[in-house]
Amino acid sequence: MLRSCMRAAARNLSTAAAVEGKVVLRYFESRGRAQALRYALVDANTNFKDDRISMQNIMSGNWFNMKNNASISGIWGSLPVLEWDNFQLSQTEAISTFLYNKLGHAEQNANDLQLAARSASLTSFAHQDIILLSLQLINIIGTMQNAKPEDLVSAVGQFHARIHGFLPRIENLAKSNGGYLIFEAMDLIAMILGKESFNGFPHCSKFMFTMMERPNIAQYLKSGQRPLYLTGSPVEPTILARVAECRPK
Ligand SMILES: N[C@@H](CCC(=O)N[C@@H](CS)C(=O)NCC(=O)O)C(=O)O
Hints:
Elements: H1 2-15, E1 23-28, H2 35-43, E2 49-53, H3 55-59, H4 62-67, H5 70-73, E3 81-84, E4 87-90, H6 92-102, H7 105-108, H8 113-143, H9 149-174, H10 180-193, H11 202-213, H12 215-223, H13 236-246
Parallel strand pairs: 1-2
Antiparallel strand pairs: 1-3, 3-4
Bound molecules: glutathione.
């Protein structure tokens, strides 16, 4: 999918900016489940509003008013929510599938059902098996303030083992496949377990480099518009530093 995604995106550079009407991606002030969706929109040069609900809204409880307002938080009262003209869509993986079609990747793949299904499978893997695990790990470590060091080491060790079970498989598929959710998932692996996680996995490293060098993504990363934190928690850097101390050597 990476190759076709790159071709489709390159073609879209000239056309997608001309999206008519309004496109809004709403999420919190964090990377979380939304970052890969932001990459897809940025890469296709889509003119969209990256609407981020601030931490103040959560702390003040105002989020609960927003949660009860379906025009903000969609039918499930949770984010991300995508608005495309008058169409509103909830659920990360459904939004990803919608964008796969809307941004031209399906067409580029000749509307091949098997390629679309494979792309959905990669999306699901990246979201369910890596992004959510990463969010959980950071939340768990964040709540283990008074935990014994060996319990922290054990939580990080379990995450490390699961990720290292996946890496040889990702390496195999990185030769020819990829996509924005895999890109984000692997960036989180580097953030949590260190860039050295990809040592011995040259296709993974090359895939990451290729994605980061895509002109619109490179410009976006350079602009500093990407949220700093995965969870939005201001204590995340401290948590990541604690995780780094507990990584298996
Ligand atoms: N299954 C949904 C889960 C959405 C979800 O739980 N979003 C969280 C943020 S990561 C949220 O909105 N939390 C606030 C709340 O539910 O009040 C998806 O994949 O989009």
